[in-house]
Structure to design on (271 residues):
């Protein structure tokens, strides 16, 4: 049964990937410097295909907290903890957004072409000389009315804790004069069993884990459930360090560590 599930989902994945390549083909050779003119369309195509892939993998995401804030007002800088490549699918299930990824991914053969055609925004974590330009590109997308998703931990983790948020990209919210919306992603069950130390590596992808074996194991799962907890928007004015610290605290306060028994949430944390 598990092998049949893997085989059928692998075929489905290839179908979704092929569809994405065909639908975004007009943007593959689009000049990078002019991507701002058309970014909204490949972004929407990418999120639609990500949502389809999430359904194929049996990913179920429930919105909690102030979910209505996602639809209120205009663009927002969305910041969240980061556990896996599944996180992108979890976000795409509910709303189209531009995702920020690394220049390293952009330089990866084929994958780099895919994420560029998807309208992703890029940052170089090693070379800070282009940081001002990169922040401006994020601010431009926000000004153009698109949500931008940033994972400020700058790496995926094993779910022990939320790492300290990196501050620089928060300048984009200030430059575009848009709010920062903190979101906390909690994976709750895998194949009907609560996520904990014994099975979290079926979902979390971090460190030196190989992608192919992890993805094949994921294809064999019956389903994964997650909760996306939406916090209150934070004003982008004032000190960026304070803004990043407030966003980090908001995400951490609603995060359920995967290293042990889930903590008891207070009403304030559930709100």
């Amino acid at each position: 049964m598990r092998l049949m599930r893997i085989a059928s989902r692998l075929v489905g994945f290839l179908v979704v990937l092929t569809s994405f390549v065909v639908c975004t083909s007009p943007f593959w050779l689009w000049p990078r410097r002019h991507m701002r003119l058309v970014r909204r369309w490949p972004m929407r195509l990418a999120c639609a295909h990500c949502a389809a892939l999430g359904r194929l993998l049996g990913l179920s995401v429930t919105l909690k907290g102030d979910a209505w804030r996602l639809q209120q007002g205009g663009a927002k800088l969305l910041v969240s903890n980061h556990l896996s490549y599944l996180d992108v699918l979890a976000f795409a299930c509910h709303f189209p957004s531009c995702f920020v990824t690394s220049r390293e991914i952009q330089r990866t053969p084929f994958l780099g072409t895919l994420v560029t055609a998807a309208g992703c925004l890029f940052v170089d974590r090693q070379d800070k000389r282009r940081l001002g330009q990169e922040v401006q590109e994020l601010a431009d997308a926000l000004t153009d009315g698109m949500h931008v998703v940033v994972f400020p931990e700058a790496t995926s983790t094993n779910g022990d804790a939320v790492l300290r948020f990196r501050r620089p990209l928060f300048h984009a919210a200030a430059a575009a004069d848009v709010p920062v919306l903190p979101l906390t992603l909690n994976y709750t069950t895998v194949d009907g069993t609560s996520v904990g130390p014994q099975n979290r590596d079926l979902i979390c992808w971090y460190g030196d884990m190989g992608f192919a074996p992890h993805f094949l194991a994921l294809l064999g799962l019956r389903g994964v459930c997650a909760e996306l907890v939406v916090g209150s928007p934070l004003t982008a004015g004032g000190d960026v360090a304070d803004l990043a610290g407030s966003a980090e605290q908001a995400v951490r306060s609603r995060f359920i560590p995967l290293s042990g028994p889930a903590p008891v949430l207070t009403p304030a944390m559930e709100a």
Observations:
- The chain has ten helices and eight strands.
- Residues 60 and 128 are 37 Å apart (CA to CA).
